[in-house]
Amino acid sequence: MKKVGYLGPEATFTHIAVESVFKQITSHPYRTIPSCIDGVTDREVDYAVVPLENALEGSVNLTLDYLIHEKRLPIVGEIVLPIRQHFMVHPKYIDEWQNVEGVYSHPHAIAQCHKFLHDTFRNKPLHEVTSTAYAAKHVYEKEDEKIGAIANEFAAKKYGLQIVKKDVHDYDHNTTRFLILNQENAPLEQTLLEHNGYKTTLMITLSENPAGALHRVLSAFSWRNLNLSKIESRPMKTGLGNYFFIIDIEQKLDDVLIPGAIAEIEALGCGVTLLGSYPYYIIK
Ligand SMILES: O=C(O)C(=O)C[C@]1(C(=O)O)C=C[C@@H](O)C=C1
Fold first, then answer.
1. Distance between CA atoms of 256 and 236, rounded to whole angstroms?
2. Among residues 8, 27, 225, 279, which one has the fewest Cβ atoms lying within 10 Å of its Cβ?
């Protein structure tokens, strides 16, 4: 049976993403995103599932940077999960939840709920922890402290907390994209869902920075009618102003169009690395 690593403990959003897509696997929680990725390179697990981007808050930079600068693993799939954040407390504080002395959650979850936190818990300390499920577990274990967590419904049930305010994220269309990584670039064997399409992800570095360099790179996709669903720049970490670009193309790697675009971009003196060509799964 294949093993899948995820950001733990049990009942994180990442865990839900794993359980919604993979079939017949054992799943293994890791404490941090880098340790989850290391789990694949150390051969403890076959796949790692890591959050990449949230619709409200943007990229999970830790994932992107660790993947690009530390452990370059092929992307073999993507999962898109709807995210509903709830505020929860230990059952003994149900009636006084508005008087909690601190709120715990993952930094991305806190960022997705700023309006709620500002309106309800202004000036109360916000504690960032490694995941939403970790926050829920912590709040249950510290039952003598009047504290609350932002996490999902599954975590409330798993760790015995009571949801006192549902849907505390700031905007309705909250979703997070997760990447599936595998050292051998092996596609998923069995899935619970049909895929919804394919993407191809490239990393591009501009040779130098002449006027119009990025424009010329993008036109290699545009005149081939290759639709891009994302373009993101991240620091190369070699000096201020040096960036690489991550580009998602909305189709599978073919024999003609994408190789043609890559050859054209390389001829411009830019570096191109294929990070993966993979199916994506949208969870309703
Ligand atoms: O803490 C969790 O539950 C996670 O799975 C991590 C994570 C993230 O890193 O963005 C995943 C989805 C949500 O956007 C909030 C947190």
1. 30
2. 225
